[in-house]
Amino acid sequence: MKGRALNGKIVGNNLQTQIRIAEAYAQEAGVGGYVTEYTGSLHLEPGKQVYDLNAWAAASASLETGDRIEIRQIFYQEPPAIVRYFDPYAGTGTGVQGLLETFGFGSYSPGVNFMLMPVYWDVMKIQAIEFNDQVRKSAFSFDLVNNQLRIFPVPGDSYGGHMLLFKYMKQSEKNLPVIDQRPNVVADVMAVPYKNPIYTNVNQVGRSWVFRFTLALCKEIEGQIRATFQGSNFGGLVVNGSELLTDARQEKESLMTELKEYLDQTTRRSQLERKQAEADFSRQTMNQIPLLIYAL
């Protein structure tokens, strides 16, 4: 019925098929997918460098027997440079105190000095702070093997009470077949809901093929009947049963080949190739449109 409702209408293309294909890749990239991503946290202890996330999962992740977690992202990095930025308006660390005095503005504000600096000044100071941390300090990093988390540097006394956040997935949910994650999706050939087609729902192209195949079947049956009487004398009438039977079988084989070729054109690969060709042709056509010239 849907096919009949589209008669006389222009069917436009969309990207939903490509989006569904890309969902699995988006899941691994951390920007989509069908598997739930959970968040967890643990307390950092001064002097403790290694943390067992399997033990944490057994106690806090509500896992079933035999299940485990897969860590997706760990939020362990140094504080951003902007929070350690010396306040330019307080006149400390920026080197503008002498400049203000040179301009004669120093005496106007004994407590706080204000001087508007360009944006690149802030960017350069932030880069200087980050580069200083990279060269002179131990970088914040971690090593994760078999859910055994080793963090660097070793937490000191100032880390007491700090929380380490991370994201994870459950292996049992990630390994579920697509049919369990999305009930309306067919995951394999055995789950395809094949049904006998209803003739009233077949479009004109399909009906034409049915007519021709029915005619070939009738010719084959007629050829088999005539072949039964092959060689009999019917008053000089020639019974061409074998020729009719050969022609009918050739027509059936030709129609089956035609149907297979038509179905091959409707596969996902063929549709993607056709859409790519359409996109290329559209792009070439759009490139032929003259561009406007704006005179300023």
Shape: elongated
Head-to-tail CA distance between termini: 57 Å
- Give me the Rg, rounded: 37 Å
Low-confidence stretches: 88-92
* Integer tally of domains: 3
Q: Tell me the series of helices and strands, N- to C-terminal.
A: HHEEHEHHEEEHHHHH
Averaged pLDDT, please?
79
Count of runs of 4 or more consecutive helical residues:
10
The largest sheet has its strands arranged as 1-6-3
Q: How do the helices and strands line up, and which of them pair or pack?
A:
Layout lengths: L1 H4 L10 H14 L8 E6 L6 E3 H8 L8 E7 L21 H7 L15 H18 L4 E5 L2 E5 L10 E8 H4 L3 H4 L22 H25 L12 H25 L2 H20 L9
Helix pairs in contact: 8-9
Detailed description of the structure:
The protein is an alpha+beta fold and 296 residues long. It has three domains: 36-77 and 140-175, no CATH class; 82-136, no CATH class; 195-287, no CATH class. 44% of the residues lie in helices and 11% in strands. It is built from ten helices and six strands; from the N terminus they run H-H-E-E-H-E-H-H-E-E-E-H-H-H-H-H. It has helices spanning 2-5, 16-29, 53-60, 97-103, 119-136, 171-174, 178-181, 204-228, 241-265, 268-287; strands at 38-43, 50-52, 69-75, 141-145, 148-152, 163-170. The strands form two sheets. A three-stranded antiparallel sheet has the order 1-6-3. A three-stranded antiparallel sheet has the order 2-5-4. It is elongated and about 125 Å long. Residues 88-92 have low confidence and may be disordered.
